[in-house]
# Entry
Amino acid sequence: MKKLISAIMAALTLSLCLCAPTSAADPKPTNVKKWDYIENFDKMPGSIVFNKANKPCQAEDISTSVESGHLVMKNSEAVEYAVKLFDDKVVKCDNYIIEVKYKLTATAAANTAFQVFGYLSNGFRIHSQIGKDLIRLRKPDGTFEETKGVTPQDGEYHTLRYEVKAGEGKATGSVFLDGKHMVTCDLQANGTKDAFVQIVTKANKAGEEGVLSIDYVKVKKIVPEQHIVPEWSFEETFDGAIDSLTGWNLPAEEGRSAEISDGILVIKNSKKGEVVINIQNEKIAKTGSFALEMKARPTFTPTAGSRVSLISFMGEGFRIHSQIKEGIVSAQNTDSWSSGNFANNDGKFHLYRYEVTIAGGKAVCNVFVDGEYLFTSEMNPNDGNSIHKLVLNTPADGEEAKLEVDYIRSAAVDFSKLKTGAQPEPGKPLPPAPDTGSAVLAVSVIAVAAAGVLIGTKKRRNDYFLCS
# Structure
């Protein structure tokens, strides 16, 4: 009997260990599915700057070239050689990842210094040093947090990963070498306005050469992800006749019109000024946090100045005021505009999503286009009636601007309770929820089977159940 009880307890312990989350330990590198910037050096990048002793120079002045898909820096001088990598995808952001795959080969006397700088955070920087047996990260007071006993300069290729999170007046950085955590500390403040990655080498003894070979440099902005809204309180897909629209005031005058054609609302304006369409019904109610989504195709006028505006007063005490212009999407802040570039004049329908979080006396709106994060805007206070507005503006008489709307919808939501991912279009099923219960049961079965016991009831010996 004692053996049976011991076996059961062992099985239950194994089951709980397998099911329970692991305890807090060293940070793990983030799984990145898609990088924003990848430079693999199949040729010399166009957006690269060379420096020698902090002065601009040419690639040959610092013995730097591209060889067999690698950026190779040869340094036998006791001065710093540096390369700066720029790109329109390397931008200022709060949270980001930099990854560098490199190999450093040097003579013992060279004792080559290898440093990585990252100037992507607003107000902070990465300053990392990679020595023969250590990796360092500079702290706010100018000293370094370091890990010793590693071999990052052994002539083999290694992967360096820097992960940065910023907020509330500070930034924290973590360093990983070949996927293993090395260092985490607060980062040094820095006001450099440009965004770039800088790599520096220096031979600590003149005449002794160190060769740094870089396989690639990657950058990933860590940005908000779009949420999957399970149910929309207001949704219009334009499947019926135009007179079936409830609470829409549509234009009906010379030069301005609206019609439904093949399930698409088509709004046209060839008269200078704005067509304003208010959408107001009981399904658009004042609320806290909410999502607003529109799938649409704007056609802009030849003369610059045409635009589409999407305005919503659904948020309690705040409003969305977004403008869609040729090549750009913007939203009004409390004192300015936030914007993101986007090729919306390509003749295709695009999905515009606004996710509004209202808390602590302010409202923040994350803007997504086609499921991709574009920018964040802090919304203007406004306490108007709960309506959505569509505005189509043309800059001159006789120049027609057009807006085709496939659907528009909104819902009050609690984003903390929603999954992120691709939102199905109207009429399409939601992705299935993960079946966590089955997974736990399966682990329990394995655990009990490992102990070689099944537990039966006295009353019904042929019926067995499993403890989990």
Notes: The first strand starts at residue 37 and ends at 39. The chain has three domains: 37-221, 234-417, 437-468.
